Amino acid sequence: MPEPSTPVVRCPWGDAPPGWEGPPPAMTAYHDTEWGRELRGDRDLFERMSLEAFQSGLSWAIILRKRERFREVFAGFDPAVVAGFGDADTARLLDDAGIVRNRQKIEATISNARTLLELDESFSDLLWSFAPPARPAPRSYAEVPATTPESVAMAKALKKKGFRFFGPTTAYALMQATGMVNDHLDVCVARDGSGAA
């Protein structure tokens, strides 16, 4: 008689709905293969920073559902291209139901691309300079903060350089999403970076 399979344990937000069969839903796949994994590179981190800003006040599930369209209309989040967007592009983006149509967030994304290009250092290195030392794995989400001294410092430094729509909470969400911190729960299958079995 075969041994019963051990259930996969994930962070609760990454679990597939009960009884789900077939490919993992988008949130589960994102949890298992992206969230908390180290991500570097100016373009990739500009994309994540922008999407985290668009997520502000909304659920990540909405952004994840719209991510491919965001990539299409923001030229793959190539900062050099986005920095060249003008009024016609802003109007085009505000008219696109496939993304979050928020003027402040759209204008901040374009402005942030320009600011990124003016940096005298790597954007990736700048962000990663705020990564905190490793800490023990959280046992529950009650142990996971919304902000940390490092995320406050990151937001303050980026604001001073001219970045917009990027506060301490968004900074911490970016840190979580890009592996600067590992907030997978101690029992989570993705905690060690291997993803689901």
Supply the key terms.
9 helices; mainly alpha; 197 residues; 47% helix; 0% strand; Endonuclease III, domain 1
Number of domains: 1
**Helix share bin:** 40-55%
Reported CATH architecture: Orthogonal Bundle
What portion of residues belong to β-strands?
Answer: under 5%
User: What Rg, in angstroms, do the CA atoms define?
Assistant: 18 Å
Order of helices and strands: HHHHHHHHH
Average predicted confidence as pLDDT? 93
Assembly classification: single chain
Euclidean distance between termini CA atoms: 22 Å
**Apparent shape:** globular
In CATH terms, what is the fold-level topology? Endonuclease III, domain 1
Query: At the first level of CATH, what is the class?
Result: Mainly Alpha
Segments where pLDDT lies below 50 for 5+ residues? none
User: For the report, how would you describe the main beta sheet?
Assistant: none
Instruction: Indicate the structural class.
Output: mainly alpha
Secondary structure tally: strands: 0
